[in-house]
């Protein structure tokens, strides 16, 4: 079940060569991190206060924000400037739940048997670029063996994309949401044999520890567990608990040894409660989140990443005959439609909320629509924007991104209009800078 590292590395390098002509004709990478720039912003989103402030000038040098100067016309002698005086500048956004190697379609379930890892690696290059161009300068990829290699290719400057925190293979129990052999026939299952911790499937405390250590060996940045059943897995239950509290604690304690944080996919109430009790950093999806779960999350400081986009997407596609297998379709219809209401309820109850879409379920590059759905759920626009900037940085455990301030990474995006007054503005990003490199200009 393991994907050879060399295979993926070759695929990504080949993908770069394939995409070079298109990239050369695009407006991307129009500067480099060593080029100092001044950005004249008509408005800036202050992620700390959640307010849109008036004109400011940002001096960017060596990939960092060097100065933030009040007023939009402050020129620095000998430094090239970018005119964004009719736009709102914001810290680059972070999507805390994506899957960069895949994108849902009616063919998704058969492609796992028909396609090779190199095919998914090729696709991930295009998905990464779309994500960056939409204003997302960082992502957390929560499950996918392509992601660590895509991360490395981006870091080496071979391909364009967001900064990636990669989970690698998600950790499940036998038959759980991330069991890679779900849906296999008896002959194939017997030929391959039961997956174990190396493949991300555990059934004991020792297995749990080994699975985390394997993720460390594989080069993961974060740990993902599937604490309950899921919507799109080829299995009947979408919400049954699939880890014991002790198993969650074994994962979390071992992850802590390596400096990892743990994200827990969870739809069902009991499995969610166990994950929070076991010490995970964040709950993803959280469909059937109860008052009991919310109370414990507030006590433990657990984050909630709603992924409203994915819920709405699968609920809509469940109406189409043949889009999902018969075992998946009723789960998609029942569970997907509930997530938006849960997000609003969690916000009203004081649960800490951070931004994530589960993109890869829906089409990459449309990530910002999650902001619109969050506002529809009753979450103020400023809070939604904070969830993808300063709050997302807190979830990741980093202190050098998520706000426009001296010393921070020069991750800056801009859009016409004021997103706090009109959240639809987030869909019109036309300036993207990551680490001081301009990838998109008006």
Automatic annotation (TrEMBL):
Any Pfam family hit: Amidohydro_1
Keyword Hydrolase: yes
One of the record's GO molecular function terms: hydrolase activity, acting on carbon-nitrogen (but not peptide) bonds
The entry's keywords: Hydrolase
Protein origin, superkingdom: Bacteria
InterPro entries: Amidohydro-rel, Metal-dep_hydrolase_composite, Metal_Hydrolase, Metallo-dep_Hydrolase, OTAase-like
Keyword Hydrolase: yes
All residue ranges annotated as the Amidohydrolase-related domain in the record: 90-437
CDD domains per record: Met_dep_hydrolase_A
Record's protein name: Amidohydrolase family protein
High-level lineage: Bacteria, Pseudomonadati, Pseudomonadota, Gammaproteobacteria, Lysobacterales
